[in-house]
Amino acid sequence: MIDALYHDIFVKRDTCEADNEYNGEHWGARISSVFVILVTSGFGTFFPVLSSRYSFIRLPPWCFFIAKYFGSGVIIATAFIHLLQPADEALSSECLTGPITEYPWAYAICLMTLFLLFFCEMCAYRVVDSKLEALGLSDGNGQGGHSHFGDESTYIKKNESDEEGEDAEDDSTKKQKQTAVANPYPSHFLHALEHQDPEVLGTPVARQDKEQYFGQLLNIFVLEFGVIFHSVFVGISLAVAGDEFVSLYIVLVFHQMFEGLGLGSRIAVVSWPKSKRWTPWILCLAYTLTTPISIAIGLGVRESYPPGSRRALLTNGCFDAISAGILFYTGIVELMAHEFLYSGEFKGKDGFRKMLWAYFVMCWGAGLMALLGKWA
Questions:
Q1: C-alpha 246: how far from its chain's center?
Q2: Which sequence ranges are marked TM in the entry (predicted)?
Q3: Inter-axis angle of helices 204-239 and 105-134, to 10 degrees?
Q4: Three-class secondary structure of residue 78 per DSSP
């Protein structure tokens, strides 16, 4: 099976189209697309980070709230409409023959990516547990207790031991221990409001803060990886587009800005330590540059790049399916489930009303991004 698939991809004569739709028109607009999309991508991804750090451009909290959940909807719609559908279209092209046509490979690759990503996350959190134990921030029983619902037994035992010895403690010590055990909610991907301070060093709160950082870091890198893969092919497709170039150009300007907004708002919520202070800027810059560079490369090979060839269809289809699997997992598990169900952001008075507003904003983001799929 594998040998036949290899022969079909790399050995068999290419019977698909060996040219592209580039017609030489709108050359000035094609050049301008490099810089316009550079600016819009940069604005989308850098602005949330800048506004969260510098008071002179800081917006009201509700603006950041809208950007955050609107971006979540954009990312989820990108996976369904802008990645999986093109992947299926490419891998089911009529000019392809052999094993690739005998199975819905776009969906299979997406499914395998999703399960592989989940396996990698399990392994990564095992490494995080070991690292926390090495830093002296383990929960005391040698286990990380990673659960979406939290390891409440650890906190309960801590409360019981505190009550037994409370007569021998002064008020300040009691206050510190109460602070350490006040939040039994899940820490796996918790977007809570706790921050590290000297009073809670070496306590479960310190562990939670560290675990939260590692979890968010893993999510950001996975999300960035999936989005950048997608951006490469978007840029090349725009450069070699034919009659539909103008409409594709307009749509991709908004597409890249909205997608950057979703990525940038996630990068902005991470509490980056001083040793990693350049990381968010590097991540934003990588996204900002990917599509413009891809457009420039596409313009350079505009006469020779065959987007309809066998290799191009298989390459684009496979990578789009992989990116779709990444964004499926990140969008539904991390951005929807954890943000809405397991975080502390919607707890307390008026929490449900705030959750409904977030859900409404996310639906708008998904709806607008899905609408853009009509043209791109």
A1: 29
A2: 27-50, 62-85, 105-128, 217-240, 281-301, 321-344, 356-375
A3: 150
A4: helix
- Give per-residue burial for 198-229: e unless 16+ CB within 10 Å, then b: eebeebbbbbbbbbbbbbbbbbbebbbebbbb
pTM of the model: 0.73
Question: Do 327 and 37 touch, CB atoms closer than 8 A?
Answer: no
pLDDT digits (tens, 9 = 90+) for 241-281: 888 888 899 989 998 998 898 898 888 888 888 888 899 99
Q: How far apart are CA 211 and CA 185, in angstroms?
A: 13
**What is the phi-psi region of residue 150: left when phi exceeds 0, alpha when psi lies from -120 to 50, beta otherwise?**
left
Angle at Cα 52 formed by Cα 49 and Cα 54, nearest 5°?
100
Phi-psi label, residue 39: left if phi above 0, alpha if psi -120 to 50, beta otherwise = alpha
Per residue in 89-100, pLDDT (tens digit) is 999 888 888 888
| Banded pLDDT at 350 (limits 50, 70, 90) | confident
Gap between the Cα atoms of 45 and 55, Å rounded = 18
The pair of three-digit structure tokens given for residue 265, joined into one six-digit string? 């708002």
Encode pLDDT of 212-230 as tens digits. 677 777 778 888 888 888 8
Please, are residues 285 and 63 in contact by the beta-carbon 8 Å criterion?
Answer: no
Please, which residues have CB within 8 angstroms of residue 202's CB and are 6 or more apart in sequence? 136, 137
Q: For residues 312 and 16, what is the distance between their CA atoms, to the nearest angstrom?
A: 10
